[in-house]
Amino acid sequence: MTTTLSHRSEDLxxxxxxxxxxxxRGSILLTxxxxxxxxxxxxxxxxxxxxxxxxxxxLFTSFGLWFDDGGHFALxxxxxxxxxxxxxxxxxxxxxxxxxxxxxxxxxxxxAVLAGYGLAKFDFPGKRGVFAIVIGAVAVPPTALxxxxxxxxxxxGLTNTPWAVIIPSxxxxxxxxxxxxxxxxxxxTEMLEAARMDGAxxxxxxxxxxxxxxxxxxxxxxxxxxxxxxxxxxxxxIMLKNPDWYPLTVGLNAWNAQAATAGGQAVFNLVITASLIxxxxxxxxxxxxxxxxxxxxAAGSVKE
Amino acid sequence: MAVPTLAAPPAAVRRRRRRSFRGxxxxxxxxxxxxxxxxxxxxxxxxxxxxxxxxxGGNAFVGxxxxxxxxxxxxxxxxxxxxxxxxxxxxPIMLFLALLVALxxxxxxxYGKSFFRVSIFLPYAVPAVVAALxxxxxxxxxxxxxxxxxxxxxxxxxxxxxxxxxxASIGNITTxxxxxxxxxxxxxxxxxxxxSLYESAEIDGASQFRIITxxxxxxxxxxxxxxxxxxxxxxxxxxNEPAILRGLxxxxxxxxxxxxxxxxxxxxxxxxxxxxxxVAVVMAVITMIVAYVVQLRGNREx
Amino acid sequence: MxxxxxxxxxxxxxxxxxxxxGGGGGDNSSSTxxxxxxxxxxxxxxxxxxxxxxxxxxxxxxxxxxxxxxxAFEKQYPNVHVNLVNxxxxxxxxxxxxxxxxxxxxxxxxxQIEYYALPQFAIGxxxxxxxxxxxxxxxxxxxxxxxxxxxxxxxIYGLPMDSGPMALYYNKTIFDKYKLPVPxxxxxxxxxxxxxxxxxxxxxxxxxxxxxxxxxxxxxxxGGKPYTVDGTNVGINxxxxxxxxxxxxxxxxxxxxxxxxxxxxTDQWFQGMSNGSIATLATGAWMPANFVTSAPSGSGQxxxxxxxxxxxxxxxxxxxxxxxxxxxxxxxxxxxxxxxxKYVNDGDGVQVRIDNGAFPATTKQINxxxxxxTEFKYFGGQKANEIFSKSAADVLPGWTYLPTQVQSNxxxxxxAGKAYVSGTSLADGLKAWQDQSLKYASDQGFTTK
Lengths: 304, 302, 449
What we know:
The complex is a heterotrimer. Chain A has 13 helices and no strands. Chain A is an all-alpha fold. In chain A, helix 8 packs across helix 10, helix 9 packs across helix 10 and helix 10 runs antiparallel to helix 13. The radius of gyration of chain A is 24 Å and the shape is globular. By secondary structure, chain B is mainly alpha-helical. Chain B is built from 14 helices and 2 strands; from the N terminus they run ααββαααααααααααα. Chain B has a two-stranded antiparallel ribbon. Chain B is flat, with a radius of gyration of 23 Å. Chain C is globular and about 65 Å long. Chain C has 2 domains: 194 residues, D-Maltodextrin-Binding Protein, domain 2 (3-Layer(aba) Sandwich), CATH 3.40.190.10; 203 residues, Periplasmic binding protein-like II (D-Maltodextrin-Binding Protein, domain 2, 3-Layer(aba) Sandwich). The two termini of chain C are 33 Å apart.
């Protein structure tokens, strides 16, 4: 039996072109080659999993890609300590990151979907310039923009508030591009014309007809913006001075840097465990989104 | 257009429609935030780049002095040269690998494709501080993975952090991080191609290879071009990886290792944000020119 | 321009705040709003009044023991609320400070600034001169190295928080195993380095991949005075005969590959200290706390010893690291802030910080029998503070850092760092460092020679 669940669900989403029901056979060679790439991706992550089971001391006395044989299996201790260290600030950081990710990535996706759709389905003055300006602006090295952005935000009273992190996250140039191409592809213009003939407003047409068709693109964009927001380090570092508003990245860096200061406590075991938790949460989000991805593909196939 | 292309949008949107401002109600919100977050700081940077703030003597208007300094700054150009080399070598390798994986996942002939899709994407999600720990261990020639391999096989592998290898080591990290990212872009572009298209080609007896070259690749040309452009921008803005590895190999990675890192060092260690702004503007112009050329070529031929 | 108007506005706001805090009678107004250099004048009575009256203080610092000292402070002065924020370590925090100063908003009242970075902020008029607060009277309270470090151009720009009189930490197990003498001179150190590495090719006398702070401290101990600063005139000469002693010694260690190519504060460094492949470290007295948390399995194996000497029988020492707390010129609540400074750096807070692992800069504590008799479990029960205290007293006077030291240290590895990884000689590398540092100083408006 080579048919896996995912194959089947995909077949369901396929356009019912008769006579193509013949299932494609799995290829072992292809699987092995892809597995090699997968191994390349995963081996460094194995380091994280393995080392999250070590104590601070075990980290420095045992080999990095194997468990600390003589030592104490410290995963549970590490987990508990991660959540309780410094009065449980990790949870606070986790919550902040969730807030920034939901508002930032959600907002970025929303704006990107709207704008991508607008670019794909409307002809309007200034349209040609839009993407050129976006690409041009993205080409400016961001580190050099940090200080000007800080000075501007400071004048607006936004520094040291969550808005200083969320507002810059609301722009996803790559999401804009993705949604543009997706909209151009997935939404038949005839469908929109028909809706217009029926007298529906543009916004209503967009939400009722276009958004469902764009689902897979929206999910992809959301995934990219989520990861980008979660990994956002530089801007929060500059904008935030209150650890209570730190996202995980800045908080973990602070923990990591702590070992390198006079009298500082080394907590690499917590940094590693906390990272593992972060990645697992992202993985969960990914798997959750994947379901929408599949169903979105089904919706997308209507266009035939 | 027989094949629905994900080609670069300007080419894709051929149909003439009534021009009206209605589109702006969709594009407007994005552009407002964009103007606040990108355009205003850029404008401010350009303004700042015309000044020079000194510890002794304070702030003064210096016109284009910072630009003439940047254009003749050997540190800046050595950074540009380095990212140029990086661009020519690393980007093709990474994109090719990403494309192969995307095609094989899309082929429907993989066992456990969901697993591969997730696992290969995962490195992109690793925060930089963690990547530093991980790769610090991997590259450690004394007690790290390299050191252990040396002991185990009784060989002396070259130190991946020495100056002559550092760029390749950074390239490896970038490839590790971004292959999955690009793979997902290609994969989602492939998903939009109606399956019926190549299924009927299959019935006509076309080989898989032929289907890839004749249907799939042209169909995702737009995605390929844009991924290339974003990778170019990414290479020219290379920052995180050198910043991470500098803690381990301070002598291999100079403060002007890449133009972006140079702008950072100028701002953060030297308080020269006026000059850093000028460096950034020059770098942006270079990036735009290269990206524009690539886009022109990419849209013309595959 | 707009900016300068804003600055003046903020400066005067600070004065108003200051007057408000100082209570009635004191002569507590700064002479002019424009010149922060001359600084405000605040009497002890003003400070006491402010502490009793209370208020809120914003502090940026990363020193870990300040947390406990601040708690003790708030307990003693219940009306004072302290926002202690870790705004980043070292130059990350300095950038944040400069940004806040430039924006004219969100400047803390007090900031932690390392000694090597203090001149830059003092010259940049970002800090209050504490002379007007009567800080000059505190001279006898502090050990000479740190006290000298907070002086700049006749002003006092911070109170020393901790210090790093240098010592040689060595792994006794390794020294015993190979029957090596604990080096008392640098020649002996070189000798030990050779013997050790010959006996065990995996072991090194120390690790080094080039560290500006270490190099300058070593030159300091050798009696070198490579930096000369006179107002806005700065000069650098790493080739001066005493500084060159260090260069010559270290060149031999590098050329003969006797130092482990491991960068400090990395994973491999902590491993090397734990597994016996790094045999010594010459660094500041703040190191023991780091040993305990970062290389716990080396416990019992390590000991402290006086720094090796350049001439047999000498006692010369130097400072490595350490930082001060300074009042930001654009901060508020000056009298209150100074009260805090005195409490944590000179008063009761010092002992709290020592109890939590800090190494003080105050003579009272450093000469305190209880302090001197403290047994370090990590050092096998050794009374290491005796060595550190002696070292603090033996720090050579007359050292000064550049007013552009932060930038200068940041480019050390671009220039001198070449000597650690290629055929470039250390002397040539240092010459390049010197040239580029001077160029930056000159770009910043200093007169260089």
